[in-house]
């Protein structure tokens, strides 16, 4: 029997005034899986994540978490329910310290229990955040801010983590570092992860399943191994290899 996906998007449509950014999308994440969404600029990837996270209301369709509809909830409610967004551009609080930013993430957890242990784990995974815990977050490098944004989301104890372009503006080395932590979050905490990424090679190497978006629609879907074998994926997303 098929297991119920932890997160499901069904026939989703999102508009900005007259602009139809998401044109009927179906997507599922199984518990414990990493799913990558690839696509060019303007394909609608950020809109998809923002609609799932409750930042934007869909015009049609549904978002279901553990079988229950969550669309129409505000972003705080969605986060408290267990679906937590790491937004594009990180959006850390620049004038709060690194530690204070991490504590801000804990608003959405259901219990205070284990908070110190979670903080210690984040500092173990991201030693640079430990070194800079008392500095203003605005003084961190782009890579460190991405680590902080992920750490802040983890303080919410998410069941599903939504990552919007974690590699944006990062060096190849830092991108690999971030994605190795993404894998670790998934294997050690069993967090399901939906990651939107321009870097198709690293996203397909990290995820279980993938979806390709073009102009608001899903144009291909499959396991990452299947997608990597498709000629158009090779040509347009993997640099013609
Ligand atoms: P990028 O990687 O550049 O963020 P994306 O795949 O995430 O691209 P979106 O940012 O979701 O794409 O944008 C999808 C479409 O919606 C684009 O045509 C974009 O111009 C449009 N769009 C995005 N935000 C708005 C807005 N606030 N108002 C009107 N149109 C918007």
Automatic annotation (TrEMBL):
Annotated keywords: Amino-acid transport, ATP-binding, Cell membrane, Membrane, Nucleotide-binding, Transport
Listed GO MF terms: ATP binding
Domain ABC transporter: 7-240
One matching Pfam family: ABC_tran
Family the UniProt entry places it in: Belongs to the ABC transporter superfamily.
UniProt protein name: ABC transporter ATP-binding protein
